[in-house]
Amino acid sequence: MADPREQHADPQFWALIPAAGIGRRMGADQPKQFLTLGSHSILSHTLSIFLEHPRIRGVVLVLGPEVDPDALDLPFAGGRLFRVVGGAERADSVQNGLDFLAERATPDDWVLVHDAARPCLPIADLDRLLGDLGNDPVGGLLAAPSTDTIKWSDGGAAVERTLDRARVWRALTPQMFRLGVLREANAAARAAGHPVTDEASAIEFFGERPRLVEGSAVNIKVTRQEDLELARLYLMRQGRLQEGFRG
Ligand code: CTP
Ligand code: MG
Q1: Whole-number mean pLDDT of the chain?
Q2: Where are the alpha helices (DSSP H) in 58-178?
Q3: Does the C-beta of 19 come closer than 6 Å to ligand 1?
Q4: Centroid of ligand 2 to alpha carbon of 143 (angstroms)
Q5: What confidence tens digit (pLDDT) does each residue in 184-227 have?
Q6: Ligand having the closest approach to the CA of 18
Q7: pTM as predicted
Q8: How far is the CA of 160 from the centre of ligand 1 (A)?
Q9: Distance between CA 158 and CA 245 in Å, rounded?
Q10: Average pLDDT, stretch 37-51?
Q11: Average pLDDT for 72-90
């Protein structure tokens, strides 16, 4: 018998960009997503990737309650950008975005959740994610194979064991799941107090196995001061920053 979740007429693709964090580890005078690289904010670079992609139907931007979207540097959106207010944790911000989408999209539509703080996502990786998962019943995430050997600690400062590196992946974003499943999984994991640091962990908690789609390590999450320099370099190499211009 066919999986009832597998099928259907042309599900739409939506992007959901959590951007309601405060950027504590960056320690700047404003949240890191509003810092400028070249002539645009990190957030603006990130939004452009999705707004310029022909297969993305709309973009849900989750901002902190105190942020005035009219005061932000945002790319041209042609009515396809929607603002939602975020919550205390990333998973709360994502839930608010999913609730907003549930009013406008169908449960089988795809949601691509992507950190505002990842402005260097290569278009080729986004295309690979869309292409590889388009017929999947559940979905998956971009991830990079670990190049370091990973140690599992005893909870303190000593090593308990070494993980098999061949099986260790670093979770990146976008993470792409069916709207209905992700909304239910995220709500269930939060209600159970299960730590949800990415969408895949909510889906795993729900008993499903997200697919791993290999993505490039240039898709960094700008987290600390030193990441700004790297992000600038990667954007420049992608031709998305003016050569020689330091913002
Ligand atoms: N985020 C969010 N709502 C929150 C917390 C985080 O929308 N309550 C967003 C951030 O804006 C970011 C993404 O989730 O785009 C990934 O989170 P992270 O890199 O941890 O950003 P911050 O939480 O802002 O940074 P820090 O943890 O250093 O404070
Ligand atoms: Mg955080």
Answers
A1: 94
A2: 90-102, 123-133
A3: yes
A4: 19
A5: 999 999 999 999 999 999 999 999 999 999 999 999 999 999 99
A6: 1
A7: 0.94
A8: 30
A9: 45
A10: 97
A11: 95
CA distance 247 to 188: 42
Task: Identify the CATH class of 11-237.
Answer: alpha beta
Question: Distance (Å, rounded) from C-alpha 38 to C-alpha 236?
Answer: 9
Residue whose token pair is 């308990």: 160
Q: Please give the number of the atom of ligand 1 that sits closest to the Cα of 24.
A: 29
pLDDT digits (tens, 9 = 90+) for 121-167: 999 999 999 999 989 999 999 999 999 999 999 999 999 999 999 99
User: Domain coordinates of the chain in residue numbers?
Assistant: 11-237
Distance 225 CA to ligand 1 centre (A): 15
Question: Do residues 63 and 87 touch, judged by C-beta distance below 8 A?
Answer: no
Per-residue pLDDT at 9 = 64
Q: CA-CA distances (angstroms) from residue 224 to 28, 51, 163, 246? A: 9, 26, 27, 18
**C-alpha distance from residue 158 to each of 146, 152, 161, 164 (Å):** 21, 9, 9, 18
